[in-house]
Amino acid sequence: AFLVGSTMGALLEWKRNNWGLMVAMAPVLALSAIPFFIFGLVLQLLVFNIDREYPLVYGYQQGVLGWPDWSDWSFILSVLKHGLLPALSITMVSLGGWAMGMRGMMVTTKGEDYMVQAEAKGLPERIMLTKYAVRNSLLPQVTGLTLALGLIVSGVVLVEIVFGYPGVGGQLVQAVSRSDYPTIQGIVFLLAFGTAAATLVLDLTYPLLDPRIKSLSN
């Protein structure tokens, strides 16, 4: 959602008069106002009316005994098939926010002096877009991605409940209802560690996006 939404936002601002992009953004922005779990319910109704044999709940095909066999391709395909709708629920709703955030940053970036100078030098449009505009506009987007990693867990919990998906969020809800404190502590620690690790990785990518950060640290 981050990559696709940021790309759409950058192109939407760079090519303002492209009616195709503007028409494509309309449903994306409408979806961004819908909660994850509500869009998940809508997807379930749509898919049920189209293909009533498509799995709408759980994480893999029922009837698997013992531990799941990840060496079995049929099981892997079943997991992917069951996880498609929950993933779409989160991804499609998130696109609009990332697209509008990137578009807003592109508006600011296009008015900077270095963009005017690049245009005066006659640089190719592709270079101006990728090397100048997008690269500088991505920095706030990466910061927003860092913050979103922790906040998305609350939305995922409701999506897991709607689809009956055996994920970490659903396990956390069950642990809270049973007052299972060791499980709660373990899941919270796992989520905190994952968020911190992802934040560290994103921070390490900052110098790649903006060399000025690397020079200042030196």
Helicity, as a percent range: over 70%
CATH topology: MetI-like fold
Most strands sheet:
none
Number of distinct beta strands: 0
Q: Just give the CATH class.
A: Mainly Alpha
Beta percentage is under 5%
Mean pLDDT: 81
Runs in which pLDDT lies below 50 for 5 or more consecutive residues are none
User: N-to-C terminal Cα separation, in Å?
Assistant: 34 Å
Number of helices: 9
Large-scale geometry: globular
Number of domains: 1
Could you explain how this protein is built, in words?
- The mean pLDDT is 81.
- The chain has a single domain (2-217), classed as Orthogonal Bundle (MetI-like fold), CATH 1.10.3720.
- It has 218 residues and is mainly alpha-helical.
- Helix 5 (113-121) crosses helix 6 (125-163).
- The protein is built from nine helices and no strands.
- It starts with a helix and ends with a helix.
- The chain is globular.
- The chain has helices spanning 2-14, 19-32, 36-50, 73-110, 113-121, 125-163, 168-177, 181-209, 211-217.
Topology:
Elements: H1 2-14, H2 19-32, H3 36-50, H4 73-110, H5 113-121, H6 125-163, H7 168-177, H8 181-209, H9 211-217
Salient structural properties:
9 helices, mainly alpha, MetI-like fold, single chain, 218 residues
Would you kindly provide a brief summary of this structure?
With 218 residues, this protein is mainly alpha-helical. Helix content is 80%, strand content 0%. It has helices at residues 2-14, 19-32, 36-50, 73-110, 113-121, 125-163, 168-177, 181-209, 211-217.
